[in-house]
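Last lecture ended with a question: if I hand you only a sequence, what can you say about the shape of the protein? Today we answer it with a concrete record. The protein is HTH tetR-type domain-containing protein. Below, first the input exactly as provided, then the predicted structure, then a couple of comments.
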Amino acid sequence: MGNKAVISKDLILEASYKLVLESGPANLSIRSVAKACGVSVGSIYNYYPTKAMLVADAVGMFWQTSLSKEMFVASSGEDFVTFCERLMHDLEHTIKAFRKSWLSELAALDSESRKEVRARENAAFAHIKRGLVVAIEHDEGINLDALSSCSVKQGNKPAESLAALVWGVMVLSLQNNDTAYQSLFALMRTALYKN
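The predicted structure:
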C-alpha cells in the first residue's frame, strides 16, 4: 500500500490561488488542483464540491492578501479622514491589480461562480465597512452630534451611518475612476471636527 497524501482545505486553497495567479480563474479546474496537490480529484471534492466554490475562495484569498490587516487599523494619532485617505490610496492600488489580473477572467465564469465570487467580495467589503466604523468610534476629535438625528431615523448609530456614506462614495469613486471622494473627505474634515 502506498502512502496517502495528506491534504487540507487550506493547502487546496493555496494551490488553487497559485494556479489562478498563473493561468487565471477561468482556467482553474478541480483536476489541475488535484494534480498540484498530489491527491485524487475526489479528495478535492471532499472540500470543494463545485468549481464555483473553489474559484470564489481563491478570489477571497486575493482580497485577504491584497487588503492587509494594517489597512483597516487607524494608526496612532491618525484621525478618521487621514485614515480614509490612506485606505482609499491602498484600495486604488488593490482595485487596479484586480482589474488587471482578474476582472476579465471573472466575467468569463459561469453564473454560479460569479455569484460565489461576489459573495466573497462582499465579505471583504463588509470587513472594510466595519473598519470604518471602528476608526470613527476611536477618533475622539469627531463630533457626531450633527449626525445623530439622521441616524436615529435610519435605525443606525451615527458611526454606522457615516461609515455607510463614506464607503458608498469610495466605491463610486473606484468604479468611476474619479476623485469625488476627495470632496467628501474635505467636507468631513470641516464638518466633523470641532475647531
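Comments.
1. The mean pLDDT is 85.
2. Residues 154 and 161 are 8 Å apart (CA to CA).
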